[in-house]
Amino acid sequence: MKITAINTYDINFMQKRKKQAVNKNHTYKKQVIGALGVCFIGIGSIILYNKTNILNQKIMTENDKKFFNNILKSLKKNNIDAKIEDLKSIVAPDEFKKLIKKYKPEQFQVGMQISEAKAQNIPLEEFYKNAIDGNFRISLHTHSNFSDGNATVEEFLESARKYADKVAKLNKNDGLPPFTIALTDHDCIKGCQEIIKIIAQNPEKYKNLKFVSGCEFSVQNGLIHHDITGLALNPFDETLLKVLEDLANNRINTICEFLDKQPEFDGKKIKYNDLVKYEKEYNASHNKSKRCVENGSGIVAIRHAIKFYYKMTQQDVNHSIMNKLGDKDILSIKKVIKSIKNNGGYASLTHPVKSFWEYIGDDFLTNLKILGIDGIEVNHQYTPSKITKLGKNNNNISNADNLFKEITSQYKNFAEKNGLFLSGGTDSHKKQIFSRQPEITKEILEKIYN
Ligand SMILES: [Zn+2]
Ligand SMILES: [Zn+2]
Question: Residue 5 pLDDT more than 80?
Fold first, then answer.
């Protein structure tokens, strides 16, 4: 009995110890598992932070991840070894869709939009007030010298970067990136490739900037010519590159055919390469650097070439030939929208007021929507001369400003009713990103950058 009692005690004691040991072991295991868990969550968060926080603290979608990985592959082919984090300034399609909805109309504008008549006696500062105050936050329409702009991609990027840094210093705290800009050269995406290459190699320098790859396509839509802007494109995509390369070659062929038909000048035939050389010399002496003839880029390529031909041969421009040939090589609207969609980007109707000089009507826009457009550029920065032209074209110059507001709001209403995003931009063709007209001065530019 005694033994049994002792044994019972021993057994009880031992069982108690064992239980304690097991419990302790459990607690220990729990602590280890807990600590490991915290560790994993910690490491996971860091990885997630590095990979996704770069895009406004939001989780990157699979679609955007694919977009970035494709760009990384293309960069590698160009001997640039970059990581996904190095592309934090590049706006991917899904991010673009979210971002574009956040902007107010005035954030697309550098300042005033009024006719020439009204513009008289208004200080230049007013035209650039939003840019001077840092309230100009996004431009989804600009050109470089890959088409008919005068900025090299380096000049373009430096202007955008300086402005983005100025806005960042103002600490707006409104959840928007300091500054977002797209490059949308006419029928050309090669400038966007160059910009992504520059940013990927020095991402820290462009930390306040968001860049959207784009392209302004000239399209044939029935009997009407107008423009469609592609946004959030992958500019390295070979299918889209091929479409644009074929188009550029067609334009260069049209120029060559035109030249073949011309008589000799000074005892010799003028060739396409003579025009390219002339374009370079002419630009060098006029502080310009557009390369439309050289790149065959944009609907203006043929017009520029023909103008240069007549200049070289000291003749007046034959406008009927220029207009006839100028519109010869244009992509169909269906092909353009299909190319944009296959690339993964978004299609927007470009500056409708400037393209149609009226409200083109619900039917036309509904048709565009069926074809697949996603947005309308209702916040385009129209210059004073374009608003005057709108008045002239409607035989109502004195009412140009009201007409402009009325027609613009009709496009805006259609977009809002039909769930299309509202796009906009400066359509800059100068060495800086802010304007075409009225001519910006050094003093104003200083105020904008500082
Ligand atoms: Zn242009
Ligand atoms: Zn443009």
Answer: no
pLDDT tens string 281-292? 998 888 888 888
Rg (CA), the chain: 30
How remote is the CA of residue 67 from the centroid of ligand 2, in Å?
A: 25
- Among residues 390, 377, 392, which one has the least CA distance to residue 423? 377
Report the chain's mean pLDDT, rounded to a whole number.
89
Q: Between 297 and 44, whose confidence is greater?
A: 297
Q: Is 259 left (phi over 0), alpha (psi -120 to 50) or beta?
A: alpha
Q: Which ligand is nearest to the CA of 227?
A: 2
Domain boundaries, the chain: 1-53, 62-239+329-449, 245-326
Q: Relative to the alpha carbon of 183, which ligand is closest?
A: 2
Ligand number nearest CA of 290 is: 1
**405 CA distance to ligand 1 middle (Å):** 23
Note the pLDDT tens digit of each residue in 57-97.
Answer: 458 999 999 999 999 999 999 999 999 999 999 999 999 99
In angstroms, the Cα distances linking 71 to 233, 242, 300 are: 11, 17, 30
Burial call 260-272: b when 16+ CB within 10 Å, e when fewer = eeeeeeeeeebeb
Are the C-beta atoms of residues 67 and 234 closer than 8 Å to each other? yes
pLDDT band at 152 (very low <50, low <70, confident <90, very high): very high
Higher per-residue confidence, 299 vs 199: 199
Domain 62-239+329-449 in CATH: superfamily? Metal-dependent hydrolases (3.20.20.140)
pLDDT digits (tens, 9 = 90+) for 293-306: 998 887 889 999 99
CA distance 347 to 140: 12
String of DSSP letters for 70-106: HHHHHHHHTT----GGGGTTBPPHHHHHHHHTT--GG
Identify which of 345, 358, 317 has the alpha carbon closest to the alpha carbon of residue 224: 358
CA pair distance 268, 353, nearest whole angstrom: 45
